[in-house]
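Re: folding output
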Amino acid sequence: MQTPPQHSHLLGTPITLPTIGHATIKYVGPVAAKNGLFVGLDLLGPAARNGRNDGSYNGTRYFTTAQPSSGLFLQYARVAPHLPPRENVLSRDNAIDPTVVIDATLLKESTLLKDPTPSNHTVPFTPVESVATLQATITKQQQQIAKYKSLLDDQRIVLEDLKPIIDNYETTVQSLNESLASKDREIASLNSKLSHFETEHEQLLAVVQQLHQQTKSDKNSQFQKDREQWEKEKQDWAREKEQLQLQLQSQSQSQSQSQPQSQPQSQPQSQPQSQPQSQPPLHFEEAPGRRSWCGICEKEGHSSADCPVELPLGNNIEMY
């Protein structure tokens, strides 16, 4: 594989690379199955142990090496900062050959010998120093042109090497911008939902607070009603108790007055005393909303006036 003409001036150039060592450039150009421009190096001296091949890659030979495994391929972008100035390389290849000046002088002298007759047209005599000066100027201009061309080629090569990276970065940046736009839309949607939820939460809190106040008010009202009802029933019970006590006292007095008259006079004293007869029940109206309760037998279902159990005469029963 041959080096492209625009890089042929680098062939044979010695170079020193950090961490690698001394080497000689043997090839500059593309490598099969690889992207970008590569430089083939023949490592010298102790640096030869860093070699990877003999100047070939994937069955294709690009250059030859002094040792079997002293060859190494590196990307041009990595080697370029360590290359010598281009004018130094060109001045080595384009040095002025002294034989050119001598041949020009001999040509001029032979022309004068062949045609010694003066001519009507005067040909200015150009000394050897003028030819050398012109040649030096031309060489210098060629070197400058070559330098600028080399710079352009280097820039083009660098741009070619950077183009895939730039394209990759542009693709990545575009993807990131799309992702950021998607995230912004998602954040805006979440903010809208959050605002809606906060509004709904505040409304629910207001409803709960209102229900709590309503429940509290209802319970207070019910408690007040129950308390009033209890006070009323308590008063009714006290009133009923008082009436029952009065009725019992009246009934006891009536029985004590009628007891001696109802006994027969001819009855012998030895005759056993008969069991007390139960008095006919007295019916009293119950207080509205109250169940009947007997203070004598302490049972519900009837009042004290209707109790079938007869109280002993003369006993005063207190109701509590």
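--- second protein (sequence, then structure) ---
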Amino acid sequence: MTAKKSDIQRLIECCICCDYLTDVRETPCCHQLFCNTCIQSWLKKPTKNCPRCRSTTLTEQSLLKNVVVQRFVDNLQFPCPYALQGCSAEIARCDLLKHKRLCSYSPDKLANKHRLKLEESRNLLLRYKEGKTHITDNALFDLAKLFHTEHDYDNAKECLQMIKDQDNLQEIIILQAQIERDTNQYDKALELYTKAYSLSNSSSQRIELLTAKGYLLLKKAQYEQAKDVFTQAFDLLRSDDESPTKVELLNALGLIAKKCSDTMGNHQTNSKRQHRPSECVGFNKHDTDNERLVTIQQRERRISTKSAPPLDEFDIKMHHIDSSSITFSIPVLPFDVYASVTGTFTDWIERKMTKLNGEFKICIQILHGCHYYRILVNGRETIECHTNFGRVHFIYVNTNDQNVNNCLDQTVLSLHKLNIWTQEVNNQFIKSDQPPPPHIPPHLLNILLNQKLPAHCDPDVLPEPNTVMLRHLYALSIQNGIMILSTTIRYKQKFVTTCFYKPN
């Protein structure tokens, strides 16, 4: 029999705290291991049985100390808690606290190290300005990056101005743009990013520069320009690109669509929106009826199938069936194609559309929030929207759209006359042939109470009380293997009887 890693992991973990064992204690019944503090807290409960088998009553004296397992756990090698800061040491568990206290990558020691390095860099820059030492351009650039990292922007700018060699001009301009961005000088940063873009040759670097420029425009609330920049960066990606950069660009476009839809929703509420090819596709669902329709004109720029003639224009329709469902539909094209939809609501997994009644249709559940999607033809991104947002469409669903009470317009609700409703049922709804309500059983009219009474009264029978609630139990002998038990609760002249049937 071979023990797996998971079996060993369960062996050295406490079943109560699910952490590594500390001061191991073993139960005598099922030999389960626990931390001493965990099992002691368990024994303080009223039920002092075993936490695992629940069959044996445990005491503090009955617990066994397992030294072998404790020694094994103490000698396990663990990475340093500051591994993310750069420490690559692996320490035994028994020495972990000591190493954590003395580790040079702890936050306090790293902060002290950065402070000393920053002071040393400032002294080096001061000696260079006084002519007491010589520094190369590469060293000045490294100093500028260090000052920028430590948020010392004045010294960083001064180092960049002292660089004489212009071989790394593009890197210098990018660093200058980052400094201007961090000091909230967005206009200067945009100019520098544009200049660096003109010097760039690789697509990856251009995408990075366009992304940084788009975020600056987004901070300045210039959504149209930001959309153009992000779309330009998105067009530079390969069609089969699945990198995080693509996700970042799509998220940025979705954020812009949400901003635009919020702006449009403030000016155009309770009305249907007609989107021209040059208008924003993002919208708020504030229509008055529950069957809302938005028609988006789209245009195709690239269709590479041989049998497919060029397609100029077609309609994509979205029917909001309810607050959580959307139906996408496009007309059946004059050539043999298949269509599918993909978006954030499907985790970008393609969902094939069904040909029905002359249209490709699909109904998808959707939650509130900002969503973006694409329509694919023949499995390729061949359909592009000539709107301001490029090839991606956006829809924004408000939280209050999930409330079914908002489906009808107030004008429709006002057509119904309000009536006063009570708990009394109108006589016209009561059938005349209904049987009368049952009377109280005779054996409940006289109540047996064990109390002393005057001599002129029956000591066993009392008149029914009107101020107390009594419960009566009635049991039948077992017949045909069934036991019947009934209880009656009576208050004044009202009673409720409940019967219980149980097979023997």
